[in-house]
Specification:
alpha/beta; 313 residues; single chain; four-stranded mixed β-sheet; UDP-N-acetylmuramoyl-L-alanine:D-glutamate ligase; nine-stranded mixed β-sheet
Length: 313
């Protein structure tokens, strides 16, 4: 198994399902409720593990009852979690999620113990980073922590992948070594990629915007486009990867499914366009049922859908 180290957030997801989002000041009843493991770090680590990678998750939880639920779910997916530490007198991170019948969602995150993951904690994992094929982190950690991950990757020569979701103000020098930087359309614009592009513009325009940012903003770039797929660019070229047509039930965590699968495929040594095609397939499978990690498909199903999808163009 290839080695992926994920520095990331771990949350307890509290999800309410509704017919439509409430208006400001309006109270509505949900039609369903779910409590499950979440957080971009945990989601992406599990997606990478299901895609076939060996994964270490470096994260923080509180000393509250929610932590036990989180730890049991991490164990259920077979993640190596010896680096998931408890922070005394802190609550475990929580995400309050609302999913409408359209499949769209709103999310409010309370960081809790995730905010205690600092630069010193990253430095303490230098040996683990040095042994990894790729290291992955996300915008849900404190900015100095993300920059520390980039710094340790640069020092050890380990491939650094950053999903800047949300698009926090990480130092340009840290983003510059990302290979790739993974963002959606809104996050890309916030970082100066395709700032003039609207959401429904042709995917080829996003491909060209990503290509123009290679070497200027990051070593390689992936921009996810929701139901339209993704674009990718590196020094060798730029590609559009179309998404399979599927029935959308719940988009929560689909981007994390794609990013985790992407990290796993890059850790195997696959080229960027092939890795992105597999990542898009993982995201497409994830939107077809409710929840986050419980909606993620295994390696065989992801590879089968990717094989049936059109080649990057």
């Amino acid at each position: 198994m290839s080695g992926v180290v994920v520095f990331g957030s771990v949350n307890l997801d509290l999800t309410s399902y509704v017919a439509a989002f409430p208006e400001p000041g309006e109270t509505i009843h949900s039609v369903g409720y779910r409590v499950a493991l979440g957080g971009k770090g945990a989601n992406q680590a599990i997606a990478a593990r299901l895609a076939g990678a060996g994964v270490d998750l470096v994260a923080r939880v509180g000393d509250d009852p929610a932590a036990e639920l989180v730890r049991s779910d991490i164990a259920r997916f077979g993640l190596a979690a010896d680096a998931v530490a408890t922070v005394p007198s802190r609550s475990t991170g929580v995400a309050q999620i609302t999913v409408a019948d359209s499949g769209e969602n709103t999310i409010v995150v309370s960081s809790g113990a995730n905010a205690a993951m600092d630069a010193d904690a990253v430095e303490a994992e230098s040996a683990r980073v040095a042994e990894a094929d790729v290291v992955l982190t996300q915008g849900e950690l404190p900015v100095p922590t993300i920059e520390a991950v980039a710094r340790v990757c640069a020092r050890t020569g380990t491939r650094f992948i950053v999903n800047l979701a949300p698009p926090v103000a990480v130092a340009p020098a840290s983003v510059a070594i990302a290979d790739p930087l993974v963002v959606n359309e809104h996050e890309a614009r916030a970082l100066g990629i395709g700032a003039e592009l609207v959401d429904d513009v042709a995917a080829e325009r996003w491909r060209d915007a990503a290509a123009s940012a290679v070497g200027r903003i990051a070593r390689s770039i992936v921009v996810t486009l929701g139901g339209r797929g993704a674009v990718a660019a590196d020094a060798a070229g730029a590609w559009v990867v179309a998404a399979p047509r599927v029935a959308v039930v719940d988009t929560t965590g689909a981007g994390d499914a794609a990013t985790g699968a992407l990290a796993a495929m890059l850790a195997e040594g696959r080229a960027l366009p092939e890795a992105v095609r597999i990542a898009v397939a993982a995201g497409a499978l994830a939107v077809q049922s409710r929840g986050t990690v419980d909606s993620y498909a295994g390696r065989d199903d992801v590879l089968a859908l990717a094989a049936a999808s059109e080649e990057p163009r």
